[in-house]
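Hello,

Our lab assistant flagged a job as stuck in the queue for most of the afternoon. It eventually completed. Since we weren't sure the result was trustworthy after the delay, we are filing this so someone can double-check. Below is the sequence as submitted and the structure that was eventually returned. Let us know if re-running is recommended.
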Amino acid sequence: MRLVLLLLIINSNPLFAKTAEAIFAGGCFWCMEADFEKLDGVLETISGYDGGTTPNPTYASVASGKTNYTESVRIIYDPRKLTYQQLVDYFWHHIDPTVKEAQFCDQGHHYRTAIFYLNEEQKNIALASKQRLQKKFPIIYTEIIPSTQFYAAEEYHQNYYKNNPLRYKFYRYRCGRDQRINEVWKE
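-- returned structure --
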């Protein structure tokens, strides 16, 4: 009995957890996936969709704007190396939170920015972070909402920046993502 209790305590404590998850929407999921994979402690990123309710969304159905899903990235990370707070802070600095229903050259609800929380702790961290950020940006359109259900995107979207480096770099440059991020976040 004691062993079972000890295992329950260890497995429920984030200091002993092997992995944790977070979900963010920051416009094009290819770009968010590439950005988050640069962080030490991120074990895996998965491009996908969250925020809608229709089962098994596809890229075409999400892009139609009729599903309420948003291009998102699910992050599997090591909580011993990286905290959820650090992920949230990193996320903010890789989007433009002052734009509604778009990011850079990508327009529409499915490109909105959002932090999809998975529990109350994530919700509280995200809300507090947004509140602090409102000192710099009085109007922030990034939503902090519960994850409805994350669905992985089609295989050709996974690791797009690695599998199609020239197309990805061209897209990212032409979209103006890095230029705008530098403008928004310059000190």
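-- support follow-up --
The delay was a queue issue, not a problem with the job. The result is valid. The two ends are 56 Å apart (CA to CA). The domain at 17-185 is CATH 3.30.1060.10 (Peptide Methionine Sulfoxide Reductase; Chain A).
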